[in-house]
């Protein structure tokens, strides 16, 4: 019986929108070896589990499915999936990203088979904005030919903020023998996982960069914006990981790891400063975009319905209101939790369900846009579009 050469690592949690594309991108691979797909679903509450079961029934010999009977958290789920990976190599892919090249696995495995001095290899990844459906960046920002040791890895962190995406990584399965040895590093944080794997790979050998785009990372800009406390929490978790890695490597790179910690602290400080001063910055950026593309918004309103409203009256909403008012277009209503914006021309509601008259709603909030769009569509007769969608067309 042929041995499994590659274990494709996958964790899922409420990925019903994306999991089919992720799985199909694995199943389309053209390879001359046997592989398995090891999936750990952390008690999804949407239809992810049902979809996974269907794929398991269709590909029983390829898919190893682990369904939790309760949520055990990202770190425990990750470790257990590693424990179930039996291949000589592990290829990484999370349930909301996907591969784009049918030869990806064969290319990376061929390289590792022919170059024993490398522990793993990675490639270029495109970044996809889930909010506007556009590609807007790449990992790494520039081609990285190789990373030969932890010291060089630290330079990558400081220079590009860890520019290798997890969906591009294939590595020799050192965890099959050394999982317990690596456990302290892997369990250092409940929220951050990629950075541990990055440095553990460099502990065992070199990483080679392949200058070819073969995966997509879904950036969910609709996620809730982090607060200052959340920023501090994630940085503190990051510090735990760095401290554990420093101990794991016997403090050989102590000075370099201290530099990484200082670098992350400086990012936090700069982020907080930006948040303090971001009102003027947002006004400048959004105001310029809206002024440049206001014709698109006006055309959309006139094309669909003369009755329209604005959902959200923060920085962006106020700018849209002012711009349209200057063009003689006054919204029939504004939806905002704060009713202090009431004036003689418009009505302000704090509940979108109260607005149900086939109007056009301009969604002018930066976070949770997809969820709010879906709610409006499912609970009212109104048509909804985000400002970002209009000005980026």
UniProtKB/TrEMBL annotation:
<feature type="domain" description="Glycosyltransferase 2-like">
    <location>
        <begin position="7"/>
        <end position="164"/>
    </location>
</feature>
<dbReference type="Pfam" id="PF00535">
    <property type="entry name" value="Glycos_transf_2"/>
</dbReference>
<dbReference type="InterPro" id="IPR029044">
    <property type="entry name" value="Nucleotide-diphossugar_trans"/>
</dbReference>
<protein>
    <recommendedName>
        <fullName>Glycosyltransferase 2-like domain-containing protein</fullName>
    </recommendedName>
</protein>
<dbReference type="GO" id="GO:0016758">
    <property type="term" value="F:hexosyltransferase activity"/>
</dbReference>
<dbReference type="InterPro" id="IPR001173">
    <property type="entry name" value="Glyco_trans_2-like"/>
</dbReference>
